[in-house]
Design goal:
It is built from four helices and no strands. The protein is mostly helical.
Length: 92
């Protein structure tokens, strides 16, 4: 179950990266929120916190005018999540 959730997250991140940050809609953000809640249910607090930070940075990017600073925060959060996924999947 844990590895399935991580793979789902990996696919979602791939979609986000390949479609572009500007093309993220709120339904994608909702999917991330659902995954965060599922990780919380199985006591994976670290990835849940990373996802919540990612969601906050996405919302900030979509609403604030300072896109240059905010895109760095979004990309930093993507990198953190990717690192977490790679390390977690290496134990499979």
């Amino acid at each position: 179950m844990v590895f399935d959730l991580l793979r789902d997250l990996e696919l979602l991140l791939s979609d986000i990266v390949f479609s572009g940050i500007n093309n993220i809609d709120y339904s994608t953000i909702e999917k991330i929120e659902v995954l965060a809640k599922r990780f919380e249910k199985i006591s994976m607090e670290n990835i849940k916190n990373l996802l919540m930070e990612f969601i906050d940075s996405l919302k900030k990017y979509k609403t604030d005018e300072d896109k240059k600073t905010n895109i760095k925060e979004v990309s930093d959060n993507i990198a953190k999540i990717e690192f977490y996924i790679r390390n977690a999947l290496s134990y499979e």
